């Protein structure tokens, strides 16, 4: 049995004195224990999440620059090289399946962001969207099941009509 007369303790979270009811009791109450362990184990994640988001969009910008600084005759090879890393690079998979980047408005200069360019590439050569391509190639086992279309079977990727208004639909 615990001798309560000699074991007065100070709670490390709220600095209040208390008498422990167990020999291993450190905190005065469950809320103090939960607050202390949450802060110690996880902390405030807002800064970490902000940094992760910043790295995500910076990397997507670097991939965009990588594609468009490559000479036009070599861009398909550069895109194929980028897509070859899908099975092993989770950050790349997150970028290529980011709905915010996929639904981004068209750029003034007509260039597509990396997600839209990858989507157009996979639709043209594999007949599937980038999301489907990523899902199928993610584990590497289904990579053989995606067949590359020959040049004669491919249909051109349709251009977006930007002049349509709501009334024209």
Summarize the helices and strands and which ones pair or pack.
Elements: E1 9-10, E2 17-18, H1 30-41, H2 46-69, H3 75-83, H4 90-96, H5 99-102, H6 114-125, H7 130-137
Antiparallel strand pairs: 1-2
Kindly describe this structure.
- The protein is an all-alpha fold.
- It contains seven helices and two strands; from the N terminus they run E-E-H-H-H-H-H-H-H.
- The protein has helices at 30-41, 46-69, 75-83, 90-96, 99-102, 114-125, 130-137, and strands spanning 9-10, 17-18.
- It has a two-stranded antiparallel sheet.
- Helix 2 (46-69) runs antiparallel to helix 3 (75-83).
Short note summarizing the structure:
This protein is mainly alpha-helical. The chain has helices at residues 30-41, 46-69, 75-83, 90-96, 99-102, 114-125, 130-137; strands at 9-10, 17-18.
Helix content: 40-55%
Average pLDDT, rounded to a whole number, is 80
Number of helices: 7
Distance between the termini: 81 Å
Order of helices and strands: EEHHHHHHH
Tell me, briefly, the overall form: elongated
Spans of at least 5 consecutive residues whose pLDDT stays below 50 are 150-154, 157-169
Largest sheet: 2 strands, antiparallel
Category by helix and strand content: mainly alpha
Beta-strand fraction estimate = under 5%
Radius of gyration over alpha carbons? 27 Å
- Count of distinct strands: 2
Strand order of the largest sheet: 1-2
Keywords:
7 helices, two-stranded antiparallel sheet, 169 residues, mainly alpha, single chain, elongated
């Amino acid at each position: 049995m615990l001798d309560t007369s000699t074991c007065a303790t100070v709670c490390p979270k709220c600095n209040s004195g208390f008498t422990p009811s167990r020999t291993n009791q450190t905190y005065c109450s469950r809320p103090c224990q939960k607050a202390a362990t949450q802060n110690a184990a996880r902390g405030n994640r807002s800064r970490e999440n902000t940094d992760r988001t910043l790295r995500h969009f910076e990397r997507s910008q670097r991939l965009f620059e990588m594609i468009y600084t490559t000479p036009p005759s070599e861009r398909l090879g550069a895109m194929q090289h980028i897509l070859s890393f899908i099975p092993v690079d989770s950050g790349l998979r997150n970028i290529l399946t980011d709905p915010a980047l996929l639904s981004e408005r068209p750029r003034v200069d007509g260039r597509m962001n990396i997600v839209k360019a990858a989507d157009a590439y996979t639709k043209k050569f594999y007949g599937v969207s980038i999301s489907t391509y990523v899902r199928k190639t993610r584990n590497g086992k289904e990579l053989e099941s995606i067949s590359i279309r020959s040049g004669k079977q491919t249909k051109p990727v349709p251009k977006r009509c930007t002049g349509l208004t709501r009334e024209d639909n």
